[in-house]
Amino acid sequence: MATTSISTAVSSAKFTPPPLDGSLTVMQMLDWNFTNNSSHPLFLYAPTSTDADPSPKNVAVTWGEAVEAVYTGAKLLKDQIPESTNTSADSANKAKVIAILSHSDAVPYYTTVLSILRANCVPFPISPRNSPKAVAHLINQVGVSHVLLGYDQNMQQLMERAAEFLKEDFEYTKEKIPSTSMIPVFEDLYLSETQHDGKERVKKIREEIPLKTPGPKENQVYLHSSGSTAFPKPIPWTPNGVQELTTCVQFAGRSLTGKILSLHVVPVFHAMGTFHIFSAAATGIIYAVFPPQIPPVVPSPQNVFEGATRTGAEYVLSVPSMIEAWSRTPVHVDWLISRTAVFYGGGPLDIDVGNRLSEQGVPLCCAYGLTEAGVISEYPSKEVLSDAWNYFKFQRGVNVHLIPSTDNPKTFEPVILSGGHCTPQVFNTTIDGVDGYSTHDMIEEHPKYKGYWKILGRADSQIIHSSGEKTNPGPLESMMNQDPHVSASVMFGHGKFQAGIIVEPVEEEQEQFIKAESSGSPDEREAKLEEFRNKIWPTVEKMNAYAPRHSRIFKEMILVASPSKPFTYTAKNTTRNAAIIQEYTPEIEALYANIEESTQPSIPAPQQWDLESSKAFVRAVVESVLLKDKSESDTIGDEDDFFQIGGDSLQATWIRNSIMRALRDGAKIDTRGGTAGNFVYEYHTIETLGAFVASIVENGSFDAGVEQQGSDAHVETVVQGMKKMAEKYSKDFLVASSKTSPTAKTRKVVLMTGSTGGVGVHILDRLLEDSTVEKVYALVRRGKDNKDNIKTKQKEAFVERGVNPELVESPKLVLLEAQLSEEKFGLEENVFEGMKKELTHIIANAWRVDFNLGLTSFESDIKGLRYMVDLALTTRSLLVFTSSVGIFQGSNYAEKRPFPESPVSPKVASVSGYTQSKWVSEQIIQNASSTAGLHSVIVRLGQACGSPNGSWNRKEWLPALVRSAPFLGCIPDDDREISWIPADLVARAFRDFLDTPNVNAETQRNPSFVHLIHPRPVQWSTLARTIGSKLNVDVVPFTTWLEKLEEVGKKDKNAEEKISALRILPSYQGMAAKYNNGSGSHEQAELEEEAFGMTLIKNENAKRLSKTLADPDVPQLGQEDLMRWLAYWGL
């Protein structure tokens, strides 16, 4: 144990810290938190929106739930991992080593790491970015007994190839190769409904698997380096080391208890992530992460921003490359400015980016840690110094010794010594009789702030990229130097996203370069350079097969040394790498500048840039990058997701750069002003990326292509995808066997989905109160909860919207847990068949709501709708489908306005994946109606505006807008009308639609389209003046209100905590664009749009089919509604 005095962690009303005096192991601290902090959050995530819940509340995973899941995982592992093993290292470790090889989401991954520990085994997170040989090396070095694999095929292939190398290189027999199983997913680990259930489960497993306390010299956890030797090196962590990781937060510059830290960017398999999961046990910090799902979310600048924003993370931890991407977008920069601290670690942040962000007010902080020793810097730091953003301060618990550099007395190499609270787990030196770990980093003290240090680079020349990943150049340079055309080589890339190499040719080759240069012809010099690169390319391919993916060399990153700048050598005849890189700095920087827009020149730009030619070019680029190391038989489908087939961020950069080069050179597009960052994240299939490229050329500029998503080529591609999806789910309908619909009968048995959503709650309420409805089957999507919790969930939804919660006990209601995208909805055979015999009506009201997703992400919803269609056909039931007026977002493609209640062109619905999915669904229903006699009503629902008790989600755009008024002193005005409709009125109309006669059975056989909006619109200005009077604020033009909102957001870093409208600022900015760039004059806009630029639509058919909507006295929205909203919002 460390001898440093132990202070007590800051207490909180919500978190009682465990003793930090060494009396508890990390696993005992978990038990402490299970007993004392069971309701305190450990993880926090923002779930994906659904139709039933468009603005879901953040989900907190508490310590009680997490620790129970750890025990559940321990039991699961004990049951599935074979007891016997032939791995030789077992006896040495005294506990089985279980490796994890998976791209997984944070909650189940970190839970599994702790579960392995609780199963009295040793966890070993292995980076899935390693090569198969590196994985085999790590398995052999440690003596892994079992490997938990990710669910994606790449992980399983990686393990299969690693197993082959275990046989070939280490003579493993089939029996000796570690057994494998799939890593537990969220639903495997998080089971219990109540805290009582959790306590019983933990008690039972604790008795079944007694906790063993490992000896002080045993290994409790394995991590691994990124490759300071030929392969990554396993780093064993002892129990004392793990305990120090857990308790080192007591030396932080400020309290972390109850604070929310975004870990969205941090790779779960990285030591940076593992360190955090241990320290959480002592601090009460809350980690904001992505929601658990398969496949896991691939971090991008936008989705990390959204996840951190929605969870309210005040601290952000990121790798430099993500911060560099954020720096290009003003909205992201404004958000970073408002954080308490933005930590970067794992590599250097670009100096220009850092300076610019710091000058703008971003609280940047440098974090410094080592896989071999843990967190070295004060974290989080007590102060944020804008003029020292790239300096760190050693934490008080570290015993550090500084060795001056022989070249520069102002630079030092830190050596971490034992005797502090950060004991190295690997020793490679001794200072004054004290064992220590020489970091091989070079640091320099700040000229103004004593005790603040900047990392200059690696003393041992290891290259640290801006992504935080490392390249060890030694072995790769040695391989290159074996090439007969090469005299010597030096790799570079510190602080850059990718590595490059300077190659000095042998004398014969140099003479040819001298001849080419003396000719004075740039073409001859370029031809010689290309010829030389081709000669050494087989060696580069060998290097790339050996290196981790982030260290691979692309052909364009080969710099050939000039005869006028020969390499310099040491007395040992080794290259003076630092001096050579310094000498070639101008060429290196020029190479990186050029590479931004110039890669893969061997792929010619197309002569024509129509859609098919653009796709063909993109296909060639993508395959040249992603299939570089694959066999000739491998192909990539036009709709294959690059990142789901093994693509990574480096490859995405090369695809982007290749396209940029072709646009610049082939299409003469000025790409220098492009602001889209890496658009490959947005358009991650050949199909969508090809359409994007075609749109850029069609619009004549890169920025226009980025901003103009409605180009003909782009829209045509989207439309083709929509039609293809509709066709896929419109095959082989079962023709209705009778022209007589059971809906003509007075009795009604209704199946509905989406019953817990804001509108669905009131539909269910209405059905249960209706005397003509005999029974209601409510299907609730399957989740982690068990069946009994469905009733609780429905009851809570009733309470939230002011509906009588006792209705859940109604004998008419049958709640069923279901998976809507599975055949028979995942119900038991007898349940499904019993329901099928009774049905007369189906209300399909559940749908995922996420406007950032593409159409394919909604395929499970569409598949579920097709099952609903089949069920309606076989039971001759009326199908009522909830569509959306959002389907009209592409109103510039409209032939008629206002929009009639009839089928719409796919172009109109092509704006987002959500609206595309609604169009596809409408088309499937139309096809089923015309070919199979489906009786159906398609309800395009407008803006639902709250329940009778005023319940209206505070985070939605209008509630957030109104709630901003007290802070801004104003509310926006608009003299146009709104047709928003209360949720209970929606429900009454849905009930009316159930009586829709099947008048089209003999004639057109088409569905009935209805637009469900308020039949008696009111002017927004009337409500705005009432709000202004009630809140004592001014009523101003929308653009004035928006300017005030933006101004407050820039001035006050913490404004977002008070003004939720700032969190969805882009939505309001999009509305403002309609005001500024709307359709012609204000008078014309009044004719085409409602207030806030909402689409104007007709609703005659809805009023014809609904007596509720047809009532001339149906109440308009007024002061009573407004007062209920304001009361619910706390105003």
UniProtKB/TrEMBL annotation:
The keyword Chaperone does not apply. Keywords: Phosphopantetheine, Phosphoprotein. InterPro entries: ACP-like_sf, Adenylate-forming_Reductase, AMP-dep_synth/lig_dom, ANL_N_sf, FAR_NAD-bd, NAD(P)-bd_dom_sf, PP-bd_ACP. SUPFAM superfamilies: Acetyl-CoA synthetase-like (SSF56801), NAD(P)-binding Rossmann-fold domains (SSF51735). Transmembrane segments: none annotated. Signal peptide: none annotated. Residues 612-697 form the Carrier domain. PROSITE patterns: CARRIER. Gene3D superfamilies: ACP-like, N-terminal domain of ligase-like, NAD(P)-binding Rossmann-like Domain. PANTHER family: ENZYME, PUTATIVE (JCVI)-RELATED (PTHR43439:SF2), PHENYLACETATE-COENZYME A LIGASE (PTHR43439). This is Acetyl-CoA synthetase-like protein. It comes from Dendrothele bispora (strain CBS 962.96). The lineage of its organism: Eukaryota, Fungi, Dikarya, Basidiomycota, Agaricomycotina.
